[in-house]
Amino acid sequence: MTVSYDWIMNHSGLPWLKLDVQVPTKEIYEELKNAELGDNVIYGESGYENYPPGTNLQEAGKIEKWTGFVLHGIDAYKPRACANYGYENEDDAPYQWTDRGEMCPKTKQFLIDNIPCKRFCRVRTQILGPGGFLNPHTDSDVSGLGLNISSPPKTRYLMLAAYWPKEVEFKLDEKVLPVEEGNIYMFDISKYHAVYNRSPEARWALGISADFSESHEWEDLVVRSYQKYGANA
């Protein structure tokens, strides 16, 4: 059966797709760890949005468990969508490699060489500490792989599992996905999803959003990945 890129991304109904990319996981994880300077941005406000209104997240002991920093974006301490920083759209946002990105030269080069895109938007670490969890939530109101409510359709979101203890669960529509360290995934995040870190170690992931318009290499990668892994979704 011949399938098209558009069908896979927007009409297949796939909940997730693993990309056919070999990741130098150990090198990337070591660089990311070395770039952590102890001043991470707290992502907790959005990560724990399903707490009852008025909950003091700091007192709840969870807000410090989901943090990170930006490798590519507006700057190392601005991880959120560009609209939060006064830019109307991603074409106007001054995305660039940050000082943290320059501290991770192997990671930077890996992304440039293996994620064929027109332009990287946000690349940020997503560190979920021991005992941390992200309550069930959605990030898009439109079904499709990698679509995010804060970005236009030409921009898609990927996740690279840089360090993923076995006790970490990623649930999508109540199904535990077989996320494995060293792989890159796209998810349909219009579906409810949640993450639970029941390990004694932090989980490290890279959230990657990029403009994939006009990239035939990217389209070929997606089709190849579907042919290799799509039936397992």
Describe the structure.
This protein is α+β, with helices and mostly antiparallel strands. It has one domain (5-48, 61-75, 108-232): B-lactam Antibiotic, Isopenicillin N Synthase, Chain (Jelly Rolls). The chain has 7 helices and 13 strands. The chain has helices at residues 5-11, 25-35, 44-47, 57-60, 99-102, 105-114, 216-229; strands at residues 16-18, 41-42, 66-68, 70-73, 96-97, 119-128, 133-137, 155-163, 168-172, 175-176, 184-187, 193-197, 203-211. The strands form 2 sheets. Strands 1, 2, 3, 4, 5, 6, 8, 11 and 13 form a 9-stranded antiparallel beta sheet that branches. Strands 7-12-9-10 form a 4-stranded antiparallel beta sheet, with no helix packed on it. A hairpin with a 2-residue loop joins β9 (168-172) and β10. The longest helix has 14 residues, at 216-229.
List keywords for this structure.
233 residues; 7 helices; 27% strand; globular
List the helices and strands and how they pair.
Blueprint (H helix, E strand, L loop, with lengths): L4 H7 L4 E3 L6 H11 L5 E2 L1 H4 L9 H4 L5 E3 L1 E4 L22 E2 L1 H4 L2 H10 L4 E10 L4 E5 L17 E9 L4 E5 L2 E2 L7 E4 L5 E5 L5 E9 L4 H14 L4
Antiparallel strand pairs: 1-11, 2-3, 3-6, 4-5, 4-6, 6-13, 7-12, 8-11, 8-13, 9-10, 9-12
Q: What is the class in the CATH system?
A: Mainly Beta
Distance between the termini: 17 Å
Uncertain segments: 45-63
- Helix and strand element order: HEHEHHEEEHHEEEEEEEEH
In total, the number of domains comes to 1
What characterizes the major β-sheet?
9 strands, antiparallel
What is the total tally of β strands?
Answer: 13
Tell the overall outline. globular
CATH superfamily: B-lactam Antibiotic, Isopenicillin N Synthase, Chain
Round the mean pLDDT to the nearest integer and report it: 89
**How much of the polypeptide forms β-strand, as a percent range?**
25-35%
User: In the CATH classification, which architecture applies?
Assistant: Sandwich
Structural class: alpha+beta
Helix content: 10-25%
- Would you give the CATH topology? Jelly Rolls
Radius of gyration in whole Å, from Cα? 17 Å
Q: Number of helix segments?
A: 7
